[in-house]
Design brief:
The protein contains six helices and six strands; from the N terminus they run H-E-H-E-H-E-E-H-H-H-E-E. The protein has 214 residues and is of the alpha/beta class. The chain has a six-stranded mixed β-sheet with strand order 1-6-5-4-2-3, covered by helices on one side. The longest helix is centred in the C-terminal third of the chain and has 22 residues, at 146-167.
Length: 214
């Protein structure tokens, strides 16, 4: 009996030593928008333009002409996002020029492709891309009656929960960074991450340039 207890003690001790390695854990539950149409590009460009315009007002540059630039080669998303961004800045009465401005609204994108399987349910367009881009900070600030706000979010959230199962998490994401600079100095910088359909990843990547060698 004593030998059996000793064996059990040694086994428990060995198990305890083996469990000292930290166990992997997940991050707290979050949500992330999914870009599924050119209209969604317009929605996030409008949000970027509003934040850029607010930054320009903050730095007393609201009446200063700005240029919208990107260092990347044109891809469908880059072309569309730039056009949407210019349109919304003009709508906000911000002077925009084609080039030669000391103040620039710059943007860049990065496509990320994951190899691992990713299973989760994510919110759909109803809660995150309705009435402009529903970043929570804007939804809370702009909506009026609390009961209406809570009810709308609850209904939209319930619908999105169902849609999330059909939508699914993709292996492809795009990182969009928008900055306001003055003579190279950053005045504002925001970076957002979005899901995109795996088959649509090429819309966000720089197009390859082919050269014919004779």
């Amino acid at each position: 009996m004593k030998n059996a207890v000793n064996v059990l003690f040694v086994a428990l001790l060995a198990t305890g030593c083996a469990s000292e390695v930290p166990r992997p854990s997940t991050f707290p539950l979050t949500s992330q928008q999914k870009l599924k149409s050119a209209h969604h590009w317009d929605v996030i460009a409008k949000d970027a333009a509003q934040q850029a315009a607010s930054s320009l007002v903050k730095h007393n540059l609201a009446n200063t002409p700005v240029a919208v630039t990107t260092a990347q080669a044109d891809a469908p998303f880059q072309t569309g996002f730039r056009n949407f961004l210019i349109t919304h800045l003009v709508d906000l009465n911000q002077p925009v020029v084609q080039k030669g401005a000391d103040v620039e609204v710059q943007f860049e994108t990065q496509i990320v492709r994951h190899a691992s399987n990713r299973v989760a349910s994510i919110p759909g367009e109803l809660t995150v891309l309705t009435a402009g881009i529903i970043v929570v900070r804007q939804a809370v600030m702009n909506w009026g009656d609390d009961s209406v706000k809570a009810g709308a979010l609850a209904l939209a959230g319930l619908a999105d929960w169902g849609k999330g199962h059909a939508t699914g998490v993709t292996k492809t994401e795009v990182i969009v960074t928008t900055s306001v600079t003055r003579k190279g100095q950053f005045l504002m910088r925001k970076t957002d991450v979005y899901y995109v359909e795996d088959a649509d990843g090429a819309l966000f990547e720089q197009m390859k340039q082919w050269r014919v060698v004779g």
